[in-house]
Each structure stands twice: as structure tokens, then as C-alpha cells.
Q: What sequence folds into this?
């Protein structure tokens, strides 16, 4: 083996003499290089879907609103908003904002963008702004948004891609090819994209917050292998990198040239039980809530997180993340109780071991998590059979309801509605377990229209008491952390719970 | 000879046609709905799914999808990537030179190591030089690409800081930097195959060295170098040339993994990402082009075979 490595040493040494040694680039980086976990999809705010795409958009396209570290909505391209009545919101726009093509961002551009989201073929924003009935231009810097019905989550949609305003002139000219040359009003403008290799942006001279931008260029590089991505950061060919594998964290912490930022993400991981789709709901697990309760009681969340995720993630028993002001604080995370789990199984009168088919996407970490659950549940009288399924296949199997239990994650949304309604409402499109309860439906619908955060929190608390406490439709296990590593040559990096990489305020040391 | 060539070329058409049907059929067998993948986290919305299916013509019967694709293919149109909406042909043209460069370098490394090692090992059969060459070859064949790749990145990029750990610079942009970005992946790819070359060269050389004409050459008093180099080697190379064309194809397969580790934006990475994202037009385009390359390579192999072995020309 050593012969294979040592033999070409001379060649490598000779080559490296000519290749600019990347580690020596200690001077001011005019070009910021960011390593992404995968190549983003199309860079059109109306058509885009992927999370990594949002990381690029954070530098490319400003939004009407943004979120802060407490998930409060703060102005970005807007300067403020006013709720005139439950169905009308008036938004005032920032003066003097220009798009990358030099045209002005005004109320008409906002109206144009919302219409584009609503009507463009293949739009992924249509559902997000479904409550928007009309956009009225009051004056060049004021728009009035009329809603079909009162909607508490609506404004938070405008803190993401639905709120990214595109240049009407450029969008009209490019048509469906806009994603190949996006023109927005973010701090950097699009330069080039080589699929699977790089996306290059350069500083937008006319940016409204230009004083807070300290780099001339940003290059995003997709590197799918987490070890290779980290190696790039360690060798200095990247300045910032997404950390997708918690097992990389110890070596990042040991490296004095690197610094790690982490924050609880908006998402969660948990187990969905198939309670509503025959024939796979026919087992004791799908039929008897006590069996599901026993399954939950057999799991030690802390230990699982310790073993698989280096103890980094946050145990939970609800879908609303701790960063949210509507996190239900008095909902305790249950500890492990094998005695109670066995008692519940006896009470249910089932023959042990109870077999449970647990579907997981086929990644090393998810398999490992499933194996930990398997061994914990075994002590309580369950025989867990792990079905490690390739991601795309798992999605389809889940949507078809062809599973008993499914370990699944959700990336999360700033508003609690985005983490609950779709998954627990009987008409919820992502309710793969096909759970249905009229009480839960009514509570979730009411939470959608309730404006007062305290009252909304109480509504979610009651929702969870029924759907999770009584009916045991799902188990929520942990909130992952967003982990971003960067070189210590950078300062001013601030990570928000949405996990995006914001370049405002970031500067070379 | 010309008739033979014509016949060989004529065989390419049905081969590609059968292959294209196979790709289509296999994609249907592959679990996972492309519309669900495309919809991302919006997948719960039936309207979104229906729109995607309509836009990608996934709601049409299979034969119609196939017919439309084949018709466009015959007109030189490979379609658009569903995921990033770029023409498949331009993606392939962008990635193919990268993999060709990587493959050529890997191939050169494999030949440069494998063939001389095979000759030495045959000439010094059952002596320390033979054992050493065999040991190295075995290590080369049995070391997984991804492991060697990661180890090399850790040593040459992270520890020593000599080479960039990943990425790619085109040869036309900066030849030196281009070499620096591809030498590690080419080495990883090449050493795996070098062992195969070494083993086959050794076997063929041992066979050739036992032939009567070699004994005659030795009896004539020719120096050992001339016996091995001029008489045995030329004959031993015939099976090695055939093997080389087969291994060239394997190089493309090996590139899939190597390109992932080193983030080389080549053919292998293109197809892996396309398969996982169920980006069918890209998968189909890449497979067709790869098949063409394979067919062309085997044709070149046969022609080379004739060049090395004049007896075949008459047949």
C-alpha cells in the first residue's frame, strides 16, 4: 500500500512546486469560497426547490423580509409593514434599491414578482402564497397585500423565496431561462455557473447595504462527500463549508485554523406511524395506540443523539423548534421507561416480540440511528426490522403509505404552521401516516388564523396533547443543528436558525 | 478488411437501439417517482405533482415518451435536464473532456506502471522482483478507490498542502493547475487498473517466453534484452491490447466514484447526480454517449489488434 502512495511522491512534489499552494493564501481573500453539500437546482426564486439553493439565494436575492435569531420577522427590502385589518397588509419599500441590471426596485416590481409566483408554469411558490388574493400598488414605494382569509403564517413566507423580488425587465426578457441568469437585488450579482462545479457571484456595486459587504466575489462549490468537503476547508481551498456529518465536528474543534458555528435548526426528525393506509396499518403498531406509546417509551433520545450525533442535537417531543417563540415550552421530553413500555404491551395484549418494519433513507447516519432504536426497542419487546431505502424510493413508498414506521426529517419553516399543518391535519399533503382527527384539524385551522402568538402557542399545545399524547400518531425525536465551519481568518459570521449563510457583516480578519 | 469494418459499423445501430430500449425500461423499473423528487418538500401538494408530470410528459404512455425521446435523439437533440434546465448535450460536452483527460492520464499511469512491472515480473519469475511486483499489483487491485482517494487528500492536501484537494481547472485555462487538480484522481484511478495490466502482461509474457521461437532466438545467441523486448513482448502484447480497450471502459465506471471523492465535475459525477435525482434525460443522454464511446473503443481495439498481429488482416 505504502508503495502506491510513496512512488508518486516525487511527481507530486514537482507538480506542487508550480501549483499555487492554497494554504499560503493567508492574505485578504477577495474571493470567498463556500462549500455546499450538493449542487443547487435552478436559481430562479419562483422555480427553486432545494435547501442549498437557498444558501446561494441568500447572497443573490434579497427578500421583502428576513428573520432574526429569535425568528422574528424583520424588514429587508421592505422598511416596514402594517396590518390594516386581518385580511390587508400594507408594506412600505426601501427607497433607492436597484436590481443587478440597474433598474429600480419599486412597488410595481413587487406586484410583478407575486404575479409571476402565482401564474408561472411549474411555480413552487404558488402554494406558499395561496392566501394572497391581490397586490395593489399604492405608490412607487407602497404595496397593499390583500388576503383571501386571515393568515398568520403568510408574512413569514415572504422571508424566503416567495419574498425575493426579481427584476421585471430581466425576467420578461429571459422567460423560462431566467434561472440561468437570475437578476435580483441581493448583495452579489450572478456571474457564471458550471453545473456541479461552481456558481460564481460578484459584488453588486449598487447594493443598498453595500457598507456591510466585504468581499468582491463569492464562489459556491458543491462537494458531496463530507470528508472531502472538510479536507478542502482544512487545506484552505474553502473558507466556509456546510458540515453535514456531526462526526466531523471533533476534528473541526481540534483544528485551530477552523471555527464552528452551530444553531438549532428549524427542522426535526421523528418517526411516522402508518395509522391510516391499509394493509400496512394492520399490525398492532398501526392499530393500538398503547403499542406506539410503548415504542416511544423504549427510546432514549439523549443516548441516541449521543451515539449517532456526537451529542450535538436537541432532544424534542414536538415539531416546533426551540428557537421559535411558539415552541410549546411546557411539553416535556419523555425519558426512557422500559418497565412502562413492557406494561403497555401487556395491557395491549399483544404477543411479543412485536415486529416493526422501520423504513429509513439509506444514509450511514440514518441507518445508525435506526440501529440504535432497534436495540433500544428490543429490550421492551419489539423486533425492529430496518428497511434502508434509497432516498427517492423512500419518498415514494412514504407517499403511498406502504410502511409501518418511517424515520423521517423535515427541514423546517420559520412559522410553526409550516412544521405542523401539512403533517398532522387530515387534509395535510405531507401526512404520510394518514392520521386524522377532527379535533386536531379544528385546532390547526384555528392556529392558522389566530394572530396572537401566546394564543397560537396554546392551540399548538392542545394539538400535540391530542395527536401525540393521546393518539400517538408520531414520535418527535430531535431537532438537528445547523453546523457551519469556517476559517478563523473570517470574523463576523452570524448564523440564524434557518441555516443560511448570510454575508452581511462577514469580513476577513 | 473493408467489408469487415462495414459490418462492424452496421452492428452499432441495432446495439444502440436495443440499449436505448433497455435504458427506458430500466428507468421504469427503478423505484422512486421523478415528480416526487423534483417537487422536493413541496411534494405533498397534488397540484404541484400534477404540473410537474404534465410538464415532463410523465403522464403520457411509456411508448409515447420513448418515441418522442428517440425522435429527438435522431435529430441530435438530447433534451433538457429536468433539475437544472440546461440542455443535456451541452452538459455532456462540458463534462466529457474532463473525464477524457482524467481517463487518459489514469490510463497512461496504469500502462506506465502495469506493463513494465509485468515484463520484469515475468523475466524474473519466482524471484524477489516478481514477488514485489505481484504484491504491489495485488495492493493496487484490492485497495478501494474511495479509501485511497481520501488518504491521498489527507496527506497531500491537508497535511502537506501540496495539491488542491478537489475541483478541476481545464487544460486550456491553466495546464499546470489542471495537472495539479487531476494528478491525484488519475493516480487513484490508474493504480487500480495497473495491477490488472501487470497480471495480464506477466501471464502473456510467461506464455511467450516458453514458446519455441524464443528458444530459437536464445539459441541464436541474441542478448536476453532483445529476446524479451523484441520477440516475446510483441507477441505477448496482443491480449494486453484487447484488455486495454476493455479496461478503458472500466475506467469510465471507476471515474464515477473517483470524481465524487475529488469533486471533479466530469461524466461520472454527472450520471450519479442524475440517477439520484431521477433526472432521466441526463441519464439517458449519458448512457447513450457512453455506449457510443464503448463501441468506438472496441472497434479501435480490433483495429489495433490487427496492427499488432498481421495474420488477422488476411482473415
A:
Amino acid at each position: 500500500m505504502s508503495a502506491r502512495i510513496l512512488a508518486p511522491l516525487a511527481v507530486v512534489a514537482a507538480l506542487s512546486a508550480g501549483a499555487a499552494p492554497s494554504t499560503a493564501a493567508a492574505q485578504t481573500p477577495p474571493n470567498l469560497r463556500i462549500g455546499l453539500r450538493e449542487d443547487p437546482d435552478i436559481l430562479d426564486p419562483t422555480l427553486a426547490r432545494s435547501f442549498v439553493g437557498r444558501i446561494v439565494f441568500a447572497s443573490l436575492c434579497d427578500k421583502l423580509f428576513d428573520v432574526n435569531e429569535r425568528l422574528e420577522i424583520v424588514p429587508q427590502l421592505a422598511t416596514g409593514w402594517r396590518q390594516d385589518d386581518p385580511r390587508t397588509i400594507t408594506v412600505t419599500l426601501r427607497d433607492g434599491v436597484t436590481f443587478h441590471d440597474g433598474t429600480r426596485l419599486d412597488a410595481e416590481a413587487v406586484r410583478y414578482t407575486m404575479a409571476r409566483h402565482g401564474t408561472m408554469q411549474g411555480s413552487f411558490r404558488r402554494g406558499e402564497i395561496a392566501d394572497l388574493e391581490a397586490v395593489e400598488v399604492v405608490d412607487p414605494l407602497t404595496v397593499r397585500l390583500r388576503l383571501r382569509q386571515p393568515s398568520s403564517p403568510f408574512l413569514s413566507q415572504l422571508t424566503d423565496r416567495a419574498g425575493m423580488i426579481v427584476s421585471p425587465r430581466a425576467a420578461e426578457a429571459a422567460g423560462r431561462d431566467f434561472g440561468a441568469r437570475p437578476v435580483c437585488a441581493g448583495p452579489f450579482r450572478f456571474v457564471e455557473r458550471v453545473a456541479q462545479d461552481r456558481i460564481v457571484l460578484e459584488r453588486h456595486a449598487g447594493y443598498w447595504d453595500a457598507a456591510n459587504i466585504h468581499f468582491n466575489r463569492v464562489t459556491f462549490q458543491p462537494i458531496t462527500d463530507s470528508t472531502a468537503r472538510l479536507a478542502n476547508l482544512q487545506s484552505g481551498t474553502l473558507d466556509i463549508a456546510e458540515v453535514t456529518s456531526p462526526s466531523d465536528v471533533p476534528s473541526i474543534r481540534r483544528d485551530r485554523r477552523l471555527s464552528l458555528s452551530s444553531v438549532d435548526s428549524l427542522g426535526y426528525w421523528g418517526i411516522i406511524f402508518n395509522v391510516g393506509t391499509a394493509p400496512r396499518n394492520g399490525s398492532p403498531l398501526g392499530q393500538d395506540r398503547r403499542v406506539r406509546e410503548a415504542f416511544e417509551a423504549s427510546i432514549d433520545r439523549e443516548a441516541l443523539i449521543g451515539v449517532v450525533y456526537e451529542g450535538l442535537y436537541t432532544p424534542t417531543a414536538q415539531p416546533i423548534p426551540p428557537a421559535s417563540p411558539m415552541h410549546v415550552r411546557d411539553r416535556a421530553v419523555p425519558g426512557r421507561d422500559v418497565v412502562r413500555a413492557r406494561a403497555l404491551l401487556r395491557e395491549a395484549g399483544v404477543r411479543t416480540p412485536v415486529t416493526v418494519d422501520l423504513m429509513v433513507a439509506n444514509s450511514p447516519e440514518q441507518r445508525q440511528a435506526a440501529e440504535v432504536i432497534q436495540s433500544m426497542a428490543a429490550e421492551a419487546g419489539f423486533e425492529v426490522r430496518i428497511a434502508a431505502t434509497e432516498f427517492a424510493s423512500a419518498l415514494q413508498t412514504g407517499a403511498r403509505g406502504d410502511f409501518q414506521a418511517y424515520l423521517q426529517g423535515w427541514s423546517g419553516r420559520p412559522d410553526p404552521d409550516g412544521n405542523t399543518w401539512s403533517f398532522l391535519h387530515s387534509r395535510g399533503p405531507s401526512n404520510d401516516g394518514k392520521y386524522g382527527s377532527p379535533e386536531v384539524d379544528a385546532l390547526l385551522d384555528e392556529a392558522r388564523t389566530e394572530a396572537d402568538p401566546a394564543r397560537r402557542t396554546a392551540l399548538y399545545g392542545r394539538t400535540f396533547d391530542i395527536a401525540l399524547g393521546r393518539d400517538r400518531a408520531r414520535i418527535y425525536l430531535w431537532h438537528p443543528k445547523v453546523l457551519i465551519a469556517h476559517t478563523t481568518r473570517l470574523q463576523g459570521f452570524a448564523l440564524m436558525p434557518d441555516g443560511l449563510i448570510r454575508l452581511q457583516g462577514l469580513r476577513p480578519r | 478488411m473493408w467489408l469487415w469494418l462495414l459490418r462492424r459499423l452496421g452492428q452499432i445501430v441495432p446495439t444502440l437501439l436495443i440499449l436505448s430500449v433497455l435504458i427506458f425500461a430500466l428507468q421504469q423499473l427503478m423505484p422512486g417517482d421523478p415528480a416526487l423528487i423534483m417537487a422536493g418538500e413541496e411534494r405533498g401538494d397534488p397540484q404541484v405533482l400534477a404540473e410537474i408530470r404534465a410538464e415532463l410528459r410523465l403522464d403520457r404512455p411509456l411508448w409515447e415518451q420513448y418515441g418522442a425521446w428517440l425522435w429527438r435523439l435522431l435529430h441530435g437533440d438530447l433534451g433538457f435536464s429536468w433539475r437544472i434546465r440546461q440542455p443535456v448535450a451541452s452538459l455532456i460536452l462540458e463534462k466529457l473532456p474532463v473525464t477524457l483527460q482524467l481517463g487518459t492520464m489514469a490510463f497512461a499511469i496504469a500502462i506506465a506502471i502495469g506493463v513494465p512491472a509485468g515484463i520484469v515480473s515475468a523475466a524474473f519469475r519466482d524471484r524477489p522482483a516478481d514477488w514485489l511486483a505481484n504484491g504491489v499489483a495485488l495492493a493496487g487491485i484490492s485497495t478501494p478507490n474511495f479509501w485511497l482517494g481520501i488518504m491521498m487528500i489527507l496527506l497531500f492536501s491537508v497535511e502537506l498542502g501540496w495539491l488542491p484537494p478537489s475541483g478541476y481547472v481545464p487544460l486550456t485555462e491553466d495546464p499546470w493547475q489542471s495537472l495539479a487538480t487531476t494528478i491525484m484522481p488519475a493516480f487513484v484511478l490508474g493504480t487500480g487498473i495497473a495491477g490488472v495490466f501487470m497480471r495480464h502482461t506477466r501471464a502473456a509474457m510467461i506464455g511467450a517466453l516458453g514458446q519455441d521461437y524464443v528458444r530459437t532466438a536464445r539459441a541464436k545467441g541474441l542478448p536476453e534484452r532483445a529476446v524479451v523486448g523484441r520477440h516475446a513482448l510483441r507477441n505477448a502484447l496482443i491480449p494486453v491490447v484487447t484488455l486495454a480497450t476493455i479496461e478503458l471502459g472500466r475506467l469510465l465506471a471507476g471515474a464515477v466514484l473517483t470524481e465524487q471523492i475529488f469533486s471533479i465535475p466530469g461524466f461520472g459525477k454527472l450520471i450519479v447526480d442524475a440517477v439520484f435525482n431521477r433526472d432521466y434525460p441526463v441519464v439517458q443522454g449519458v448512457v447513450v454517449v457512453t455506449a457510443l464511446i464503448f463501441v468506438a473503443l472496441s472497434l479501435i481495439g480490433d483495429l489495433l489488434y490487427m496492427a499488432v498481429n498481421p495474420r488477422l488482416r488476411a482473415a
